[in-house]
Structures are given as C-alpha cells and as structure tokens.
Amino acid sequence: MKIKSICSAIVMTTLLGTANVQAQSAPLIPLSDFFKNPEKSAFRISPDGKKLAFMQPRKNRMNVFVQEIGKPDQLQVTFAEERDIAGYFWKNDNRLVFLQDKGGNENFHLFAVDADAKNLKELTPFDNVRVDIIDDLADNESEMIVGLNKRNPEIYDAYKLNIVSGELTMIAENPGNISGWLTDNKGSIRVATTTDGINQSVMYRESEKDAFKVIKTTNFKESFSPLFFDFDDKTLFVSSSVGRDKGAIIAYDPAADKELRMVYEHPEVDVSSLLRSKKRKVITGVAYETDKSHYHFLDKKREDLQKKFDARFPGYEVSLGGQSRNEDKMLLYVGSDRSYGSYWFFDEATGTFTKLAEMAPWLKEDQLCEMKPITYKSRDGMVINGYLTLPKGVPAKNLPVIINPHGGPWARDSWGFNPEVQFLANRGYAVLQMNFRGSVGYGRKFWEASFKQWGKTMQNDITDGVEWLIKEGIADKKRVAIYGASYGGYATLAGITFTPDLYACAVDYVGVSNLFTFMSTIPPYWKPYLDMMYEMVGDPEKDKELMTSASPVFHVDKIKCPLFIAQGANDPRVAKAESDQIVEALKKRGIDVPYMVKDNEGHGFSNEENRMDFYNQMEAFFAKYLKK
C-alpha cells in the first residue's frame, strides 16, 4: 500500500475505532521483557548450506554459536564478556569473521575463528584504528578486502587481508580524498568515490593496472552512488538523484559516462536497494520503503518465492536473510510491528519451512500495540509522515503522550517492532514518531529543506505533530513529554528550550547541546565531510549567530520542565561534553538534573545491565511527571 496524504478526520476515525474495539487493556509487561537480550538472533547460513550460525546471550553478552542444520547440538565460538559481538558473517564453509569494539568507541577490530571454535585470530590488532569491510571476496576461501585508517585516521586505505594468518597487503593507497572503494565481481577495485567536502566524484578504471579517471562529479546534494557491477563487469548499477528529486536505480556505462536505462523509480520515495541472484546472474528486483517495506520484482522466480513466503506468513513482513551458495537453502526473517521477529529455514527442494527461533518468545503479540502510519502537515504546508502507537484497550482521548523524534537526523523511522515504543505504549502512553524534514528517503527537496534548520523548521515539524495530536483530542496537552537519542536528544533539548510550555518533562539520550562543540569533536573519519556538515548544519564562523540561536546550552534560562539525561562516556559521535555542558548550565540555575553516565558505553547503551538501568529510571521519571 502506498501512503498518501489522508484527511485528519479520517485518520482520527480509524485510530479511535481501533482503540475503542479493544476488549480490555493489555497486562503490564515486565520492563526486562522488552529490553533483555533476544533468545537467539542474527542467523547466518554457511555457504555450503550445511551449518547455521547465530547470536545468543552468554553471561549477558551476545556471542556467536554454530550448529549443523538438522542437529540439536550447538557450539559457542566467541566468548565476549565485556561487550556484545557487534556483527559477524561466514567467510567460507568453516570460518567466521566477527567485529568488536571497546567500550563503545566504534573503533571496530576484525577477528576470525573456525566453526569448531579453534584458530581464533585478531586480524586488525591496531589501537585507535577502525576497520571497514570493502569486499568479503565470497569466492576466495582465505582473503578479503578491508579498509583501515591506520596510516591516516581521517581516511581508509584498501588492504588484502588473509583471514588465517592475518597478513595485510595494501592494494590501494588513499591519496587523501577517497571516501569509498568498490570492487567488481572478480574482487578487483574498479571504482572509487571522492569528496572535497562539498563536491563528490566517481572515479573509474578498466582494470587494476590502469589509473583512475574521474567520470562523474556532482554536488553532494545530488546523489550518484554506485551499488555494484552487473555480471559483465562493465555495466554499473547506480542509485542516482541527478536531475531528479527522488533517487532512482539506473544502469550506467562508466567507460562512456552514459546512462543506459532506468531500472526502477518510484514517484513518492527514493530507491537505493537493488536485489540480485549471483548464481543465476540476474537482477531480481528492488526494495523501497513508503509506509512499510515493499518490493518490485524484475525476476519471476524471485517474485514467486516472495509470494510463497507472504502466503505462508500473512500479515507479516518477510525478508530473505541469507542463502546458501546454491541459493536453494534460505534464511527468512519474519516480523511485524507487534513481533520482535522469528527466523525460519526454507528448503526450496522440499518446499518446507522450519522454525529456527523466536527472538523474544516471552512477548505475546496480542498484548502489544499496533503502529499505525499517519500523516500531518507542518505549518508551512510540508507533509510529514510518521507513526502513531496507541496504548491497548483505552480510548484514544486525552492520553499522556511521548514524542519520540529519531536520530540522524538524516535517517528515518520505519514501521516494525520497536521495543522502546512498545514498552511506553504498554505503560499507557501514546507514542508519536515523525519523519521531520531532512529524514531520508523522501527525495532531495524534503532533505534539503533541513539544511541549517536544526532547532528551526525541523523543530517546527515536531512541534506541529504535538499540536496535531492535541487538536485531534488524542493528547492531553498537560501531559506531553519528549524523548530522543542522538539528534533526537538534540530535538528533545531544543523542544524544551524553544517551546518550553509544550512539554511536561523530557529525556535526552546522548544528545547534542552545543552545535559548536559538536562540530569540533566529530570522529576523525568524518573530517572529509566537514565542509558538507558546515553547509547542512552551519559554519561555526559564518553562521555563528544561527548556531548560537539553535544551541540549547546557550538558552537554558528558558527551560522549565524536568529533564533526565543519559550519556556514554566513550561516545565518539556525541562527546560526553555535550551532556556535561547542559547539566552544568542547569545546575548553575539551581536545577538538579538526573544525569546517568555509563563509563563502558558509547553512542547508546549496548550492555544489557546498562539498558535495564536506563529504562528503569526513565519509566520512573515519566510516571512521576505524566501520570494523573
């Protein structure tokens, strides 16, 4: 279904009708049920289709386990105790590669281990260095290509890495302006993207023996993002908004700098995800997101498969989460707004579906709340898409409300299971999430409307969402709170600073308080984009007045409502100083601000015990100021 602008009266009828037909309120679900580690998650199938790997908690940390398909025995192959494994994948039929950082610093190191838990090897044992995976070289048993910023913390050179010995060989040195590398189907680096901070270029070479040549240069406002080569290694598929408002998938001849054909475009949203079958060497379709996730198929076999999946799991979103090298054994993720999700194994030869795991079997779907896509208009006529989740079994009238702006800000909220939203709704709060201007996926015009608008029209979009809820009778205007993380934390502080009469209380989680210090403390690998940040957020010298006016820390005298702040000490994106500043400024006014700092966390709390502590305090905080 394509979401369109809907008359608010119709939206209200739908929402009220849904709320009023609930037979009874949902039981109070323990907080830990929402935020404890999943029972099992992140399933991966080995290339030969004979083994499964998955993540499972041990000593409160998510670790990787392996088992043979069809057999009950499982073997733990990673033994993290300080911090969860951040991610992993099968490199070959018997060896896995995984990522881990320290205390949330996001300087991820790469490790490898055999499926029998032997031959553990740290592959990138370098302090203050972050690894970026360029190509896993699926057809190469022992090597992969990675990017490392060990020579210069601001840029990544490309290396060939042996996953058994750890031997590193530089295969492409970054001259200082390359922001990304792309290989062809044989694993040769053929494309590089560069930036001077404002303009972005795509460079191409016929082979690794040739020199790179610039073939396309665009301003950063126009995206021209290479995705991958077609199977002839000549045609390049690109997500492009050049000459368009909405990003579209095109087939492009890099040697001739020529657009060959339109693969797919959508009138409402950007399209940037292209699907393919490596075995059959065909492009199978695209994925895009309006109100929910959708597919447009270009290949009948893949379309028929999806129809089979959707028929087996009606009412759920079913995505292909991995498959064997022969593409006959598949992993499916099945989820919805009221289900954390489950993993299934599908054997195409027999047509059988086998359930592998429920991520959170302790949560019951009939006790959880629907997330409904909604739209409203901002004061200048901009259409804002979002999601409204109402508490179960109570009329949608005069409710306490949590406004929950997303982070990024160049990201978006999506339909699906969100433990924070479900937790808050279970506690009796309506939750509004909105894709304010600048949220990605809605085209260039909508994105560019956010430039230098932190705390301005971007904040108006959030404020107007509150006013819409009040006007429609859903929100009790005396019991509206705002809570967000990262940019959402900034929006929280901006909301209670620049519209101080709107909110009864607020929770800021790793949020920006001072645009000047935020811009000066970004991670070194963001530095190549600093000029772009100046144009999108503000230049500390040229836009000093604007940035001062939009920084909550300079206007704390306007804050009236209670505020709770949480921060990770090792946060590389939003430094702890951002939270320290707002806390200190409020204390100087004699205001006691509850302030939680976790010394072993970064940009958000990963460790289970820290999550529990944060949400327990947040629950008590909201109850104190929002409950009648």
Oligomerization state: single chain
User: Which sequence of strands runs across the widest sheet?
Assistant: 28-29-31-30-32-33-34-35
Query: Based on helices, strands and strand pairing, what is the structural class?
Result: alpha+beta
CATH topology of the domain at 364-626: Rossmann fold
State the separation between the terminal residues, measured CA to CA. 39 Å
Give the CATH architecture of the domain at 364-626.
3-Layer(aba) Sandwich
Q: What share of the residues does DSSP label as strand, in percent?
A: 25-35%
- Mean pLDDT metric: 94
SS field, number of helical segments: 12
Helix content: 10-25%
Provide the CATH superfamily of the domain at 364-626: Alpha/Beta hydrolase fold, catalytic domain
Q: What is the total tally of β strands?
A: 35
CATH C-level name of the domain at 364-626? Alpha Beta
Can you summarize this structure?
The protein is of the alpha+beta class.
